[in-house]
């Protein structure tokens, strides 16, 4: 019985880690307030987190003060490419309830208020 419990726990941990891999990679955001970014999403504990790795504006790549800051915060896989956690919006320095859906090379990120009733979203494209 003990071996069965250990095997079940191992399989659940593997399944959670495998589903988190759906979001792992580099993603390009939509333009927001005249700029866009590349976000590098990687595992962070039992979730995934996304850090601003490059920033661009109308003149090309530039060194934003937000480079290296975490934008996607503790997004926990919910199954089927869905994630829940938090998201930070640099333009107003606010953290929102975050929801994320990944399907292949497309990611839809939502920042929500009012318990998730009002959301603003962006569609990102996988770069790598």
- The total of helices stands at 1
Instruction: List low-confidence stretches.
Output: 1-19
Structural class: mainly beta
Arithmetic mean pLDDT: 85
Would you list the SSEs in sequence order as H and E? HEEEEEEEEE
Distance between the termini: 43 Å
Radius of gyration: 16 Å
Strand content: over 45%
Q: What report would you give on this structure?
A:
The chain has one helix at residues 2-20; strands at residues 25-28, 36-44, 47-57, 60-62, 70-79, 82-89, 94-103, 106-113, 118-126. With 128 residues, it is mainly beta. Strands 1-2-3-5-6-7-8-9 form an 8-stranded antiparallel β-barrel. It is globular and about 40 Å long. Mean pLDDT is 85; it is low at 1-19.
Summarize the topology:
Layout (H helix, E strand, L loop, with lengths): L1 H19 L4 E4 L7 E9 L2 E11 L2 E3 L7 E10 L2 E8 L4 E10 L2 E8 L4 E9 L2
Antiparallel strand pairs: 1-2, 1-9, 2-3, 3-4, 3-5, 5-6, 6-7, 7-8, 8-9
């Amino acid at each position: 019985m003990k071996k069965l419990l250990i095997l079940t726990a191992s399989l659940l941990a593997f399944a959670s880690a495998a589903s988190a891999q759906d979001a792992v990679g580099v993603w390009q955001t939509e333009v927001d307030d005249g700029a866009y970014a590349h976000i590098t999403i990687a595992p962070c504990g039992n979730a995934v987190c996304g850090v601003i790795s490059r920033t661009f504006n109308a003149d090309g790549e530039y060194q934003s003060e937000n480079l290296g800051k975490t934008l996607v915060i503790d997004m926990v896989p919910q199954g089927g490419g869905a994630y829940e956690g938090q998201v930070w919006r640099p333009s107003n320095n606010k953290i929102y309830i975050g929801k994320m859906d990944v399907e292949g090379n497309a990611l839809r990120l939502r920042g929500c208020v009012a318990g998730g009733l009002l959301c603003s979203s962006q569609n990102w494209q996988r770069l790598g």
